[in-house]
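Quick question, first post here. What does this chain look like in 3D?
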Amino acid sequence: MTRVALFSFSAGAGHIRAAAAIEAASRIWFDDVQATHIDMATVVDPVTRTIYVDGYIRVVKQAPWLWGRMYKATDAPPSRNLLNRGRLAIEKVSARNFKNVLRELNPDHVISTHFMAPQLMAQLLDQGRIQIPSWVTITDIACHAAWMAPRATGYLVADDGIADLVAARGVPRETAHATGIPIDPVFARRWSRETCAEVFGLDPSKPTVAVIAGNAGVTPVDRLVGPILALRPDLQVITVAGRNAALKARIDALAAQPEHRGRLHSIGHTTQIELVMAAADLAVTKPGPQTMSECMALGLPMVLVSPIPGQEEYAAHHVAARGAALEVADGTELIAAVRRLVLDDRSALDRMREAALAMGRPFAARSALEVVLGRPADRPDALEAPER
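> Answer (accepted):
Ran it through. Tokens below.
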């Protein structure tokens, strides 16, 4: 039995979801792999946990401009950046707990979906205390300096463009593998638009826009749906408010209005986001790398709004430049983009769908394990790819 330790960090949902996807892939496609997922928030000391989890979420929600400045200011090796040296000093406090977890798990491979664990792995490798391959899964569609870890065995990244960026940081290009960002294996299934639409009470014959607020529900979805619905009487909108109960309540109130009844469908946090995406013609979403990877796996074109300055801005530029999405700066541009794609120029929507499918990596989680283990999956046909 090959043991794989997966280390994430619940500072944002993407790191957790990527590790969970690899864990699920180990069960579906491999016979003799035991993957164990550990959230580093349960390993580090309380101060570090507060800084990384509560601090990050608070800054992103209340002062995103500050996060953007911090992101750019720390995009340099620790030897040339005081903030990064401080970050590494904070992380070292948790080295003992991390070493104890490693000893208990005794893994043959370590895969990290957050940048903290690879730095702690590097310390232990330098000290000669472990001899375990350390793989870094970059869960951004970008390559910030924080992801670069001494002694890393290799990097698992979104696509060849990001692999080139990793190499530009001084890493041998052959160690950067374009597996895709790991996403839940459910995105590798074929989904019927008709069946998925029925789950949410949608009419599959009508144009449908999914407006996705993200897991934390930070996108102002309630301010977007009215103008979108006003574009055409038969247009449908399904909203995903995430864990934001107040946002969900405001959308529910809009859905109850006579002019929106039967056309606006509201859900909160869901474990079936793949069904929402499969039922839609277009997604309006913030450019979270995990959400965009899921959309592209299903060939769903995107209009990108409200990026977090820094990593999400770069991700939005990267995906839009390859034709799978449009970036918009404000509500006026958003409505113009939805009108054009859903109502006026379906050929443009079709081209975006083709671009999304070309970028999509529905088997990314399986591919990540194949690279790490150095062999193909035992049951490669356990799931089928979405219909192309």
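The chain has 16 helices and twelve strands.
The first strand starts at residue 2 and ends at 8.
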